[in-house]
Amino acid sequence: MRYAVTLELKSPALVGDRREPSAYFLPSRDFIPGGVLRAALARVITEGCPYYSEARGYHWVRFAAGSECADCMWCGLCASFERVRFSHLYKDSARVAPLTAYRCKFDSSHSTFDTLLAPGRLRCPECKERVERVSGYLDNEYRDVAVNRRLIMRLAVDPYRGVAQDRQLYALRVLDAGQTFLGWLDVPDADTIPETVELRLGAKTTVGLGRAAVRFERAAGLGLDALKKRIERFQEVIRQSAKAEPGYTCFSITLLSEALPDTELTPATGWVSTPDLRQEVAQAVLPPPLRSAGPGVEVTRAVADFKVYGGYSTAVKGDGRQKARLYIAAGSVFLCRVRGELNDGLLQALFHLEKQGVGLKTEDGYGALCVCDEFHLNNGGVSDEG
């Protein structure tokens, strides 16, 4: 069962990001990661659970199936908590701008357009001037969505003397209160969950940060017919752009969040040919059912970026330090083709891919994607320079 999640910040929130090189600022991310919402819900569930024990893990949710569980409002969610999939939450239901999104460099009022299937040099379709890539977040009408932040000053206190600690003034760049972030979660085998809940999320919740009100509403899940229509429309756009090749079915994969590939990507130390790089990305992005579909799926164009993340895991004993890995950035777009017409096998594989996500940590919001995104369907044209 899919639920729409609406999260309203009642106080500023600090959702961890990389510390800036100066170590003076502690910045917050500009979205709510699915793993942060999972941790906040886990804390609420365990704090009210009579069977909770820290010996199993700090705020680690495990269904006890005890006599008091039947009357608990969290029973349905708790029983399947390890299989619940959380999405990232973005402000006002915005989305990460695809890396193929461009707009006029001289007039921001000109419409944002897509360049995945654009022929020739990139020019604004309205004024024929130069264009630049769009970054950040876009709403349903492809306009910019800005996330409001504020700066909060903090001073560390010496734990022994109880006075201000020397040279320990720092600033928090936090998400401002009053903003609304939207996403979804998939709950298997649970008919009902609480409609509203108050929780604390992010860092420094003991000093008033991260207070939020969350509302859950049932939502329609992904539809196979809707996906089929998007793929069929994509074939029409391909044919109109003169990029169609007889005997192939083409489709695009657009990452809605960062993806951690199953196979570890390693930075190249020298020059790598484009076909080899595409093949490596295809092996990392496409799951085995797609890689073996007929003669296999070929990535004909990849517009992608990468980020490096490390961190710590509280789910393991000891240090918990995690090795830094290469993530494929949100907004990356892959144009693929497979020989033959669209059949039930390929359609089911793409439907499963869109529903389950790609790569690791999909339960915490990573690897979310869209097949034949509407953005590529509605914004496929751009004028040549001439």
Q: Could you explain how this protein is built, in words?
A:
The chain contains seven helices and 20 strands. It starts with a strand and ends in an 8-residue tail after the last helix. A hairpin with an 8-residue loop joins strand 17 (306-312) and strand 18. It is of the alpha+beta class. The strands form six sheets. Strands 1, 3, 4, 12, 13 and 14 form a six-stranded antiparallel beta sheet that branches. It has a four-stranded antiparallel beta sheet with strand order 16-19-15-20. A three-stranded mixed beta sheet has the order 2-11-10, with no helix packed on it. This is CRISPR-associated protein Csx10.
Q: What's the helical proportion of residues? A: 10-25%
Termini Cα gap: 52 Å
* Largest sheet composition: 6 strands, antiparallel
Unreliable stretches covering 5 or more consecutive residues: none
**Category from helices, strands and their pairing:** alpha+beta
The helix-strand sequence is EEHHEEEEEEEEEEEEHEHHEEEEHEH
Helix count equals 7
Q: What does the overall shape look like?
A: globular
* Overall strand count: 20
Strand-residue fraction?
25-35%
Average pLDDT, to the nearest integer?
84
**C-alpha Rg, in Å?**
23 Å
Protein name: CRISPR-associated protein Csx10
